[in-house]
Recover the amino acids of this structure.
């Protein structure tokens, strides 16, 4: 028994004519008759009753025909699904992201990816990089995007540089520092004594942020409220004296709405993170995960370039994916040309 024989049975059951069925399956009538007779002999059942002038379905033949139709449908679905898996149009992707990359880029990436590949299942994990790294090693996620400055060199990991965003300090519009004049220039030491809120930042990032403000090592400038739920921090800022360490890009909507104020502070530089897409080096991504990774790389890189152009200071280092010594030729995501994220978003 084979799928071709089942197809021959269906063709005859739908036409009840050897000549019409033979034409449909591109066989001679004798070849079609031989194929069906062979299947009947194999099954030990009569599927069709034949006379000189007519063909009808035998009493048990409908059972065979119904199952043949089901098997052929499943075979067609199987072939399509295999092709979808090969092209990334089917499957599942588990993505991890740090709070800043997730808030600024993940929603757009998921929206575009889902529109292109609606049959791919997505699992999203927003967390601190240490927890994401644990999940990656455990095989719970395919890859993650986060600041990697505190991640030790690990021969098991492959990292693809994707950029990073500029930072600033934000507060409620009625905060004591800005209530009288939202645009006034604030001296760094005026910040001391207030409560600072931030997502979990690598120690290197926060220390460099502090140095960029010109504060001394003994100045008591530290995060008093650490939370990786950015939405919760945003709800805590109104009517409080909390100062939020956040990205310029992420706070654009709140600034336009007039809910918060960006502190006018002198800084020598305002970008400190080294973001990357991190995966296990010898673990092959599925086609769908590869497509999602490529889309996020493009999206974050383009967003980082726009952020740097709009908010970046001259004292900033070049974005990490623009430093040639940072690129790793073994990373296919770095060198493979793809449609830009901006084009993808404009299509969505």
């Amino acid at each position: 028994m084979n799928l071709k024989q089942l197809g021959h049975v269906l063709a005859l059951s739908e036409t009840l004519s050897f000549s019409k069925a033979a034409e449909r399956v591109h066989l001679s009538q004798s070849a079609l008759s031989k194929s069906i007779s062979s299947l009947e002999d194999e099954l030990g059942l009569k599927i069709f009753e034949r006379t000189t002038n007519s063909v009808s379905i035998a009493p048990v033949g409908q059972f065979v025909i119904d199952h043949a139709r089901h098997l052929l449908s499943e075979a067609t679905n199987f072939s399509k699904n295999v092709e979808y898996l090969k092209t990334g149009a089917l499957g599942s992707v588990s993505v991890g992201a740090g709070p800043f990359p997730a808030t600024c880029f993940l929603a757009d990436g998921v929206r575009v990816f889902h529109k292109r590949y609606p049959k791919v299942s997505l699992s999203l994990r927003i967390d601190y990089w240490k927890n994401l790294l644990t999940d990656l090693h455990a095989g719970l996620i395919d890859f993650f995007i986060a600041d990697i400055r505190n991640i030790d060199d690990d021969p098991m990991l492959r990292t693809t540089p994707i950029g990073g965003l500029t930072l600033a300090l934000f507060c409620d519009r009625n905060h004591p520092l800005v209530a009288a004049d939202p645009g006034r220039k604030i001296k760094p030491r005026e910040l001391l004594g207030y409560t600072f809120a931030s997502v979990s930042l690598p120690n290197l990032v926060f220390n460099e942020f502090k140095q960029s403000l010109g504060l001394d090592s003994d100045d008591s400038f530290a995060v008093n409220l650490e939370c990786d739920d950015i939405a919760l921090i945003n709800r805590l800022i109104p009517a409080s004296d909390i100062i939020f360490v956040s990205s310029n890009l992420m706070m654009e909507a709140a600034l336009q709405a007039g809910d918060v104020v960006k502190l006018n502070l002198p800084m020598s530089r305002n970008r400190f993170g080294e973001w990357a897409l991190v995966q296990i080096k010898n673990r092959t991504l599925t086609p769908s995960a590869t497509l999602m990774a490529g889309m996020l790389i493009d999206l974050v890189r383009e967003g980082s370039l726009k952020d740097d152009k709009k908010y970046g200071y001259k004292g900033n280092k070049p974005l990490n994916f623009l430093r040639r010594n940072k690129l790793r030729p073994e990373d296919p995501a770095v060198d493979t040309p793809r449609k830009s994220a901006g084009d993808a978003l404009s299509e969505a």
